[in-house]
Amino acid sequence: DTAVSQTPKYLVTQMGNDKSIKCEQNLGHDTMYWYKQDSKKFLKIMFSYNNKELIINETVPNRFSPKSPDKAHLNLHINSLELGDSAVYFCASSQVLNYEQYFGPGTRLTVT
Amino acid sequence: GQQVMQIPQYQHVQEGEDFTTYCNSSTTLSNIQWYKQRPGGHPVFLIQLVKSGEVKKQKRLTFQFGEAKKNSSLHITATQTTDVGTYFCAGRGTGYALNFGKGTSLLVTP
Question: Do A45 and B103 touch (CB under 8 A)?
């Protein structure tokens, strides 16, 4: 069984489009995260939700909007995609905020 | 904001050699975590250190947390080709966010 799953695995789209990435965890964790990993492998926290409540909202453009319909899901919607948004986006979860994190397989987003 | 610096950025060793990556913070950390990411994979949790001066071992891996809780290290003894990947430290200060270092990419040649 996959602990943290993300869809899609790959996403190729044009500038200006709107896209969503979905994340689900079946670990019963209370906290979920979105990270962006750029081409130089730098992992940057974007958002964190604890019990469906937004806890961490780093300096991320307003075009990025997370949505947590329940504790097991944290989706990421991106409006008006730009070339600089190309990266691998990782979803993660942990039992408690900032404890051991379990990462999903990642979504490689390519904006052309 | 709090930054976690990690060195070296890259390390290339012959199989059997030792390897160490270092992590430094400008502020005191409440805890530090280490993750490993294989090429094309996702980060996988290795360990968390919480106490000042803490040392933990996992087989050939030794993790240390500095006395001032501002630095940490990961040492691998007698590297193997399976150790290839990028090793990240991640530290939390007084805020909520866990800040990742930029990682050390380890290449091991047989």
Answer: no
